[in-house]
Specification:
Inosine-uridine Nucleoside N-ribohydrolase, Chain A; binds beta-D-ribofuranose; about 325 residues; binds calcium ion; eight-stranded mixed beta sheet
Length: about 325
């Protein structure tokens, strides 16, 4: 039976590719809904972009919900300087046919989890954790239905990408991240330590482009744009492809090495807000609350992504 998931995202080129990867794999993943949050760009763009991806993927019946417009306590931070003003620069923007559901994303998450069997739904957040944390705050009993949470966020060895200490998703809403990491359900975190290993080199993007269907072409277009900023910033051969690591982990967990340890989020200090203190060597007695991904088979990851994007040509996905 396909794993039932809710993807909570802020597209963002890399969120968009995560959506494509999930929508390419209906045998394994049943996407109950896509919830969007303010992050890379404001909410009205993240929900529009998510709906565009459903159109491009030919999945216009996917349910898309708009959620929180701003973090729980802090002022919003966006990232147009990376993603472009649309959030998905690299492809042409259009008015999507996939409708926006009227229900608020947080209400959808709460309602879906209340109605679900125990430990039956996996949450896949790839943006700031505001929607998920707000849902948990509203009704902690919903956690009984959560099988696990596989999120993109955090940094240990790589250091921060938006402040010296913090990764963007956690920095935008550290209070929400604190709630999610300590919610008591299994959390797996794909942070910069692994996402910086899956570089979208020209060769890899070229292979994706060669797949030749509209979804692969959109992916190649977005990754080519994404490439520009990050290759300059990191001096690397290609940009890290952050968010699809979550979905790749659900599809092929053996691509990743993880370690079960304590991850605590800095919410107080302005200097290091959003820092994820990953107790990788178990030097504290803080309870183990998360699986920290630290190694990934990057070639295997791109093989999986390229193969799955090919499913859209076969009309399977
Ligand atoms: C994360 O921040 C966003 O810019 C990306 O979409 C990703 O979710 C990486 O730090
Ligand atoms: Ca994201």
């Amino acid at each position: 039976m396909a794993r039932r998931i809710i993807i909570d995202c802020d597209p963002g080129q890399d969120d968009a590719v995560a959506l494509f990867l999930a929508l390419s794999s209906p045998d394994e993943l049943d996407v109950l809904g896509i919830t969007t949050v303010a992050g890379n760009v404001p909410l009205e763009l993240t929900e529009r972009n998510a709906r565009m991806m459903c159109d491009i993927a030919g999945k216009k019946s996917t349910r898309v919900f708009a959620g929180c417009e701003r973090p729980m306590l802090r002022e919003p931070i966006t990232a147009e300087y990376i993603h472009g003003n649309t959030g998905i620069d690299g492809i042409d923007v259009f008015d999507p046919e996939t409708p926006l559901e009227e229900q608020h994303a947080v209400d959808f998450i709460v309602e879906t989890l209340r109605a679900a069997d125990a430990e039956s739904v996996t949450l896949v957040p790839t943006g700031p954790l505001t929607n998920v944390a707000t849902a948990i705050e509203r009704d902690r009993d919903i956690l009984n239905s959560v099988k696990e949470i596989v999120l993109m966020g955090g940094a240990m060895r790589e250091g921060g990408n938006r402040s010296p200490s913090a990764e963007f998703n956690i920095l935008v809403d550290p209070h929400a991240a604190d709630i999610v990491f300590n919610c008591g359900r299994p959390v797996t975190a794909m942070g910069l330590d692994v996402t910086h290993q899956v570089l979208s080199t020209r060769e890899r993007v070229g292979r994706i482009r060669q797949v030749g269907n509209p979804v692969a072409e959109a992916t190649a277009g977005m990754l080519s744009f994404f490439h520009r900023y990050d290759t300059k910033k990191y001096g690397s051969e290609g940009a890290p492809l952050h968010d699809p690591c979550t979905v790749a982990y659900l599809l092929q967990p053996d691509l990743f090495e993880t370690k079960f340890c304590n991850i605590s989020v800095e919410t107080g200090s302005e200097l290091t807000a959003g820092h994820t203190a990953v107790d990788f060597w178990h030097v504290t007695d803080r309870p183990h609350n998360a699986h920290w991904a630290y190694e990934v088979d990057a070639d295997g990851f791109y093989e999986l992504l390229t193969e799955r994007l090919g499913k859209f040509s076969e009309g399977v996905a």
